[in-house]
Amino acid sequence: MKKIKPSGATETTPETVSIEIVHFEVGAVPQQRTDTLVREEPLEIRVRGQSIAVTMRTPGYDRELAAGFLLSEGIIHHRDEIVEIAPCLESDSPENTLNVFLAPFVEIDFARLTRHVFASSSCGLCGKASIESVHQHFPPIESNVAITAEILVALPNRMRTAQQTFSQTGGLHAAAIFDLQGNLLVLREDAGRHNAVDKVFGWGFLENKLPFDSHVLLVSGRASFEIVQKALAARIPIIAAVSAPSSLAVEFARESRQTLIGFLRGDTFNVYSCAERIRASRARSSQPR
């Protein structure tokens, strides 16, 4: 997996690359400009030297991405199961290949790991059987935590303010973990929305912050089945998305007893499951007659 650089591009940061473009505006003369693009490169994840997945990602926080991926796949569960995550020096592209060294007591069934292709935002699973299969590894949420509507509607602006690379490129998804008071714990950006989620969960795993059972996961785009499934692995009770959820994401959230929020924009949002965790605002009192 050799690094591919767009023609005319210059190196800037691990997350971005600058490239010369021609900017058009109707009624004006075309202009040569420099544009900043989000970098996208493959990351191969190996466990004990054996390749288990390749995902297209934005470089940065790769150890967290690998740990979060393995957590959401049910391969690891506790911090002491990982001995080391390091570039694979045997690869032709060690900067894009990570080898995860697991403790000797960790048993792994490589025959069950079929994700030997490029990962995408769709998990390729569907229906009741898939949900029940996930629940064999991650049981439904049992939690009485709650958050106010006022705190929820403030989260997208707080996330957007913290998106440094997005402000440069406009081409990144973000995932963020907040506590129930609206304080930001961690935010990660990536070209793939599922990778951003893996990175925040990987941070929690490697920093011994899991479970996130009194927290909110906010994603900058839509909520797919895979994102809600990953949230269950981290024991997230409340998931919020700026855009829409999919039908399977809603079905999974209801079966997993997770609160799923969509279209979190401005002062409004929709709750698709477990609305009891949202404390509604008091209605404005009517004016006296």
Task: Explain the layout of strands and helices.
Layout: E1 9-11, E2 16-23, E3 31-38, E4 41-47, E5 50-57, H1 62-72, E6 82-87, E7 97-102, E8 118-119, H2 127-135, E9 147-148, H3 149-162, H4 164-169, E10 173-179, E11 184-190, H5 193-206, E12 215-219, H6 225-233, E13 238-241, H7 247-256, E14 259-265, E15 268-273, E16 278-279
Parallel strand pairs: 4-7, 5-8, 9-16, 12-13, 13-14
Antiparallel strand pairs: 1-2, 2-3, 4-5, 6-7, 10-11, 10-12, 14-15
Helix pairs in contact: 1-5, 1-6, 5-6, 6-7
Give a nutshell description of this structure.
With 289 residues, the protein is an alpha/beta fold.
Structure description:
By secondary structure, the protein is of the alpha/beta class. The protein is 25% helix and 30% strand. It has 7 helices and 16 strands. The chain has helices spanning 62-72, 127-135, 149-162, 164-169, 193-206, 225-233, 247-256, and strands at 9-11, 16-23, 31-38, 41-47, 50-57, 82-87, 97-102, 118-119, 147-148, 173-179, 184-190, 215-219, 238-241, 259-265, 268-273, 278-279. The strands form 4 sheets. A 6-stranded mixed beta sheet has the order 11-10-12-13-14-15, with helices on both faces. The chain has a 5-stranded mixed beta sheet with strand order 6-7-4-5-8, covered by helices on one side. A 3-stranded antiparallel beta sheet has the order 1-2-3. Helix 6 links the parallel strand 12 and strand 13 (238-241). Helix 5 runs parallel beside helix 6 (225-233) and helix 6 (225-233) packs parallel to helix 7 (247-256). The protein is flat, with a radius of gyration of 21 Å. The termini are far apart. The model is unreliable at 114-127 (pLDDT under 50).
